[in-house]
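Changelog note: in this version the structure field was regenerated for every chain. One regenerated record is shown below for reference.
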Amino acid sequence: MPDNARPDNALWGGRFAAPAHPAIQEFTNSLPFDRRLARHDLLASLAHARMLRETEILSRSDSDLILSGLSEILREVETSELVVEGPDEDVHTWIERTLVERVGDAGQRLHTARSRNDQTAVALRLYVRERLEDILSGVAGLQRVLTGQAASHRETFLPGYTHLQRGQPVSLAHHLLAHVAALAADVQRLRAAHRLAGVSPLGAGALAGTSFPIDPARSAALLGLDRTFANSMHIVGDRDYVLDAAYACAMLSVHLSRWADEIVLWSTREFGFIELDDSVAQGSSIMPQKKNPEAAEILRGKSARAIGNVTALLALVKGLPLTFNSDFQEDKERLFDTLDTADWSLAAAIAVARGVNYRTDAMEAALEGGMLTATELADHLVRRGVPFRRAHHQSGEAVRMAEERGVELWDLDLETLRACCPSAGDDVHDALRPDAAVAAHDSPGGPAPGRVLEQLQEVDREVAALEAWLDGRTDPPIRRAHLEERLLDAVLA
């Protein structure tokens, strides 16, 4: 090789006579961040090599060396005996160089019927699915904490708010389950992203498949992926699954932000609905009395980061021509940051949720002063034949009268109530207490204790189903086959 040719560790150096400019080499190298894909690329390489062996595209002697070499590298990477570092431009080059150093020329046959385009895509898909499973486990953990608290507070009442103004009484359980319902929607999005990432691109090559008699279905099965691609051009240029995962995580971050904002608000003296355990609060460098909900505040801030990453990824892919473009190198850092942020945020949210002490006395006190059962008064009149719009108007007059006297609706005597609401029945006061109002809201999905119990039972079923699905997720078949106790016997089986 001429002195100025590309180095031996480049996968594409034969065409080039001049070495890469140092600035260009540094600018284009992705190993510093894509090295976290080493495990997943090794698994995909094992599946590809096993398929090449079974289709007799590779000889048994070469494939034996490749499979045993890859298995050993995988074991060392997973146990941190081998550090992914060096002069290589990306993790895929690092793997091939390391393999060739260990098994010789046979290692150079691994790339038969494969391109870095389908190689990169399959490693990233495996990584995305694995990380989404971790995030789903975190979501289930947070749901468990919140539902456990809800189960203890089915008859703890507080104001429900619209426009941040007191609206109607609800139970604390019902309020907490609203956040759980948002997380349930996140589970659906995350699992959909997981499913959409489950396509194996192996066999697509650079863009036009391959002339070798490959078996893409076998590669997919070895990797535990759900299906194979329909169009080779589409699959190597497809990053929809990256966007799907990023969007699902961004929505999760938004829901965590809304919950965290409530933690911040409720922990203020003005609300006083909760007190945070010292372990999940922090102090001030100048004001000794302060107890700040900083973790919750940072959770709010993390959502902006996740949203920004989705925007960046959308902008990245919006104008790219088919098929593969090196712009895709930019998807990884945004994706990795999003997945990491979701994982860390869930761990922090679970810790904060466990550190919340609910001040039910403050919640009960907040039920007064807001005329929270005015709607119940209107409903009472409707049941006695008054058209709702008229009942609404009459109830508003009663509210004004109570405010002028500085009392609650339920403190007005019957004669005074009937001055505003002529059709009020003798039992009107039975409907105006907050606990009675909550119990009366027995419609499906409502705050009545029985309905809350139904919600709790449904959530328990959903979370149990998610946990069972996660427990059923196992290592890809190719990993189980190549990391048996007797490594060589498993490789050659």
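Spot check on this record: Residues 39 and 74 are 6 Å apart (CA to CA). Residues 1-6, 485-492 have pLDDT under 50 and may be disordered.
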